[in-house]
Amino acid sequence: MSLPDGRANGHADGSGGGLVGKPVARPNIRRLIHGRGRYTDDITVPHMLHVAFVRSPYGHARINGIDAAMAETSPGVVRIVTGAEVSEICKPMHAVAEHRPGHKSAVQHMLAVDHACYQGEPVAAVVATSRAEAEDAVDLVMVDWEELPAVMDMMEALAPDATPIHPELGDNLCYQHVTDTGDAATALAAAAFTVEHEFEFGRHTAVTLEGRAILAEWDPVEERLTVHQSHQSPYQMQDIYSRHLGIPEHKVRVITPDIGGGFGLKINVHGEEVAVVAIAKMMGRPVKYTADRLESFVADCQTRDHLNTATMGVDANGKITSMDYDNTLSVGPYTAYIRFGLAEGMMAITCAAAPYALTDYHARTRVAYVNKGIVGMFRGVGVPVGCTVTEVLVDQAAAKAGIDPVEFRRMNYHRDEDYPLTTVGGYAAKSMSLHRCLDACIDIMEYDALRNDQAQARENNVYRGVGVATFVEAAAFGPVYYGPSGARVSTQDGCTVKLEPSGVVRCMTSVTDQGQGTLTGIAQIVGDQLGIGMDDIDVISGDSSTTPYGGGAWASRGMAMGGEAALQAGKALKANILDLAASVLQTTPDTLTLGGGEIRDIATGEARMDLAEVAKVGYFRQDTLPAGVQPELMVTRHHVPNTPYYVANGIQGAQVEIDVETGFIKLLGWWMADDCGRVVNPLMVDEQIRGGIIQGIGNTLYEHSQYDENGQLMNATLADYLLPMAGEMPDIKIAHVETPLTSTELGANGIGESGTIGAIAVLWCAVNDALRPLGAQVTKQPFTPEHILDVIAQAGRGCHPSRLESPV
Amino acid sequence: MNEETIEIALTVNGEQVTHTVPVRRHLVDFLRLDLNLTGSHLACEHGVCGACTVRVDGVIARGCLMLAVQANGADVVTIEGLSASGEVADLQKEFETRNAAQCGFCTPGMVLTSAELLAQMTSGGGVPDREVIRDHLSGNLCRCTGYQAIVDAVEATARARAGITMGEGA
Predict the structure, then answer these.
(1) Domain boundaries, position B154
(2) Residues of chain A found within 8 Å of residue B44, distances taken between Cβ atoms
(3) Do residue B97 and residue A25 have CB atoms under 8 angstroms apart?
(4) Chain B: residue nearest A32 by CA?
(5) Can you give B53-122 as a three-state secondary structure string?
(6) What is the pLDDT of residues B52-88, one digit of tens each?
(7) How would you classify the pairing of strands A505-509 and A493-499?
(8) B152 and B140 housed in the same domain
């Protein structure tokens, strides 16, 4: 793969290598394909107990007492642990984002003590010798419930007369924020025309195939905690177990084995998982818990659930001048600990309009507490919402101006010569490649042919739509963003690289890999630095006691941060190896380099000695070295970005067909042109894109966690909660525009969330494009057949598509 | 509830197994908890996702919808046994080179399900088109890959078995 900046594929200094940029297969995929993966629930240890939780059957209830007498006599039961007992030895959570003035959240116990605020909230644990026996006894724990009125509607929750879920907070407003850039009201009034639309994003959840799982072992003799957990950050959980349970941090070890899907869900802190650790400490025995599917639906952190209205102003030349954006979302009864669900709203209003050169912007987000599951992190965090709101308005503005939507975008993007710039929502962008990505996407999707096909289809009374959407992904969030929040979230990542005595290399990284291929990328980067192949490198990750401290996996940071740390560590080890080799060879290090597993003379390329020989001297024959030479064949480097985040961007295209009789949507084609900076491994990047897109399609067409007015989740099974399956999904064609970041030597940006963000926006655009001849536009996702038929029927009656309730 | 148990005898991955199991225990819990065969996964336990797919008497089955006692006398093959047999080594290689697995949790089920289609096609002598492959895999949920690489891997294996090379873009 050739890179636009002319740099060689291998070393940054061009001295050979060649793994970076190649579609290298993952060494760690084989065990998964052969059924040899080792997930948390696969691990069994002696004397192990199992936990099942007693959960609130109500959306909102007071707990007046718990009678465990009958459950305690159930076969296999060892103990019943109440929320109050957990809280005696485990500090509760209190999520307050210090960088968000006015943000408030109630204290959240790991298991509810006297107040349950969502259906499925854990209130007690049954500890038994098998999971089945623990589940049997759950039904025998008698909780004296007093059902309270549930606050389910976010607008009602924010009404002045609403009853606060937590009386101590005074009301149900978690947080609100207003962004003003320029003067949107004046600009909108002066616009040649405006477009306005309403957008509802249904609540959904992550649905990792592997449920959350944890195995906690407390050694009461050494007072040492070992936890195996299906989690994206062993470091974050080490910190939490240490602080909340009062265990010195160096006695806490968190291991994250194979993870059956993360998607952001498994960066969240779930109280019941911390409770499992507390129970293990109480019992002095290993305790395992795996969430089953029903528990995953009711008690996994959830996502989205936004209502939006937005208006865009355009001048007589077809230039977007202004935007007014009102966002409201609900985050359940608590702010997610450390990871702050309010970020959904902040990201939405920050990312909106990011590709476009408008000057006047007003936005507000309001975050409501309701009696639904807690909203935490999920792939995209609010960006799909802000992106969709923008792209749909852009399409509507283009239609009103009578300009092709692709041309309209080109007219309104930031110009390439205008960087660096700050977008109206507040993204600081050093550069973006919007125009090049648009060209690349239009090219692979054969846009003109699709428009011709659409026109022909219309003649045959077939409604096809073509969508093009621009996305901007702020990736790899750094300390400028998280530091001031007061949350102990590490925004740096580290890598240790060690030359083993036989000349092979072991890397220890703080980045974790749930299938993204990050560890493979790290091996490629280190391999190129040291001039060795994949077979000579092993990468270890996911153990808080043996790897460098860092963030783990979140915010599309694996390559951007962990990759750079690996590059710098590899480079430093290379320097040490060459220093040592120069001593042995009685030359200077600047005459030597590494390649093909050998120390080579730079001038001639001649192999002088191999890595095993250098390692042998370094580890076993120091007696042959000049006095004072200290071999250092293990090096650690960390990387922390000096910017709040890196900005990646791209375009997605989609072609759909709508059956206007049934409301069914068929996906005919999908395309994406992305710019994630330096592509370390195109195979992994492409598969991140494809998987992300399919998740975005699922979010937009099918997925919906539906609560009734009392707080009951009505579709908490995989039979009732629809997900994309192979039969309905399209093949996806991808093009890369590669602009290496200038902030790092590696130049890699984030890619993990781009597929999902852009897919949601482009599906709104494509469906609306198909419906436009009918005068209809969708207003809420998921786009159920019923919703499609509704908006068509309303348009036919001359009504505006179903209006959301007016903001309070 | 005191667990009623019963003794069952069956073949698992070619080995004769005799075990006393609770009558309520489903086949995958039996494989995982009693035989420590952890390659078969549980993700929904109500027969929707396919992560628990195993082969019973030559036909794939949802291991979570079948009780262990129903497998009395049966010939059960799990991903561990299928892998060891070498029957799908070519398919597994295609999964590897195309990155047709990410987290890998669905993968054992995907491999078992794909193997069945490939066996049907091999005996029929044809190569399934992509729609047929997608349809056949539609009972197996993958949350990571987006399916395309899996479809590619199955298609490439079918073509290789039929002696046809994959074309560009396939």
Answers:
(1) 86-161
(2) 293, 717-718
(3) yes
(4) B104
(5) EEEECCEEEECCCCEHHHHCCCEEECHHHHHHHCCCHHHHHHHHHCCCCCCCCCHHHHHHHHHHHHHHHH
(6) 999 999 999 999 999 999 999 999 999 999 999 999 9
(7) antiparallel
(8) yes
The answer to whether residue B147 is domain-embedded is yes
Whether A522 is covered by a domain: the verdict is yes
Residues contacting A683, CB < 8 A, separation 6+: A23, A24, A25, A517, B98, B99
The SS3 of residue A463 is: strand
Residues within 8 A of B (CB atoms), A 174-233 only: 207-211
Asked whether residue B166 is domain-assigned, the answer is: no
CA distance B132 to chain A (A): 9
Order of strands, sheet of A463-475, starting from the edge strand that comes earlier in the sequence: A463-475, A646-658, A665-675, A732-736
In chain A, the residue whose alpha carbon lies closest to the alpha carbon of B29 is A132
Rounded CA gap, A90 and A601, in Å? 60
Q: Does A297 touch chain B (CB under 8 A)?
A: no
* Number of domains chain B contains: 2
> Where among B45, B68, B83 does a domain terminate?
B83
> Does the beta-carbon distance from A515 to B36 stay under 8 Å?
no
Tell me the ipTM for this assembly.
0.96
Q: Residues A19, A26: contact at Cβ < 8 Å?
A: no
What is d(CA A471, CA A61) in angstroms, rounded to the nearest whole number? 42
| AA letter at A616 | K
Residues B59 and B96 in one domain: no
Q: Which of A26, A34, A132 sits opposite B92 (nearest CB)?
A: A34
Does A38 touch chain B if contact means CB atoms closer than 8 Å? yes
- CB contact under 8 Å between B141 and A32, yes or no, is no
Peptide bond into A641 cis (omega under 30): no
User: Domain count of chain A?
Assistant: 1
Domain that holds residue A548: 27-37+492-639
DSSP per-residue string spanning A197-257: EEEEEEEEE---SSPPEEEEEEETTTTEEEEEE--S-HHHHHHHHHHHHT--GGGEEEE--
Last residue of a domain, one of B48, B83, B118: B83
Which helix H or strand E contains B23, and what residues bound it?
A: none
How big is the CA angle at A744 (ends A520 and A579), to the nearest 5 degrees?
75
Cβ B92–A33 below 8 Å, yes or no? yes
Same domain, B20 and B68: yes
CATH classification of the domain holding A496? 3.30.365.10
User: Are B121 and B97 part of one and the same domain?
Assistant: yes
**Structural domain includes residue B167:** no
A261: closest CA of chain B, how far (Å): 5
Q: Residues for chain A: how many in total? A: 808
- A582 in a structural domain: yes
Q: Are residues B76 and B10 in the same domain?
A: yes
- Residue B67 and residue B96 share a domain: no
pLDDT at site A171: 98
| Nearest alpha carbon to residue A332 among A108, A615, A663 | A108
What does the pLDDT look like over A293-324, one tens digit per residue?
A: 999 999 999 999 999 999 999 999 999 999 99
Shortest CA distance to B28 belongs to which of B95, B80, B97, B104?
B80
Mean pLDDT of chain A: 95
| Binary contact (A29, B105; C-beta < 8 A) | no
CB atoms B144 and A75 under 8 Å: no
- Specify the pTM: 0.96
Does A139 reach chain B within 8 Å, measured CB to CB?
no
Instruction: Measure A141 CA to nearest chain B CA, in Å.
Output: 14
| pLDDT for res A481 | 78
Using pLDDT thresholds of 50, 70 and 90, give the confidence band for residue A644: confident
In a domain, A552, yes or no: yes
Note whether residue A322 is domain-resident: no
Asked if B127 and B141 sit in the same domain, the reply is: yes
- Cα-Cα-Cα-Cα dihedral sign, residues B5, B6, B12, B17: positive
In this structure, the answer to whether residues B102 and B145 fall within a common structural domain is yes
Domain-located, residue B120: yes
